[in-house]
Specification:
The chain is built from 6 helices and no strands. It is mainly α. It has one domain. It is globular and about 55 Å long.
Length: about 150
């Protein structure tokens, strides 16, 4: 395995592992397998946080604390994790409110003829801080193991 590609491999493996872990965590909660979670965002652990934390930690291990590579990846990780909690969560909450407005005020005939019918299927509301921390811990662990 090429040493300079380790940050990329760590990030991808962390993301894949986080997505697979979501299926098992959901199975423990609701007692059925939801394989659609492999391709959805949101939930525990955050695959976004896992990916960027694995990237940043691997850059730290390979290039050191004073490296510009680590600095850029660290800032990138902070932005992604902040957005996962803040911006994405707020956008998800707004989508739920919009959905309630559309489906609460509209009749079935009107709903069938609008482009908004697909909105009902999107329920994720971004990430909670715990989900982001869980992803960061997972990504850090994978980067340390690789």
């Amino acid at each position: 395995m090429c040493m300079r590609h380790l940050p990329l491999y760590s990030a991808i493996i962390a993301m894949i592992f986080a997505q697979i872990l979501k299926v098992f965590i959901q199975r423990g909660r609701v007692k059925y397998w939801d394989w659609n979670l492999l391709f959805q965002t949101g939930g525990m652990p955050s695959s976004h946080s896992a990916m960027v934390s694995a990237l940043a930690v691997k850059m730290l291990l390979l290039y050191g604390w004073g490296s510009p590579w680590f600095a850029v990846s660290f800032i990138f990780a902070i932005i992604v994790m902040y957005d996962a909690i803040g911006v994405r969560r707020q956008a998800g909450e707004m989508a739920v409110i919009l959905e309630e407005c559309i489906y609460g005020a509209a009749t079935d005939a009107l709903i069938k003829n609008t482009a908004a019918t697909g909105l009902r299927h999107w329920r994720r509301k971004g990430h909670t801080p715990l989900e982001v921390v869980g992803g960061a811990i997972l990504g850090t662990g994978i980067a340390l193991l690789m």
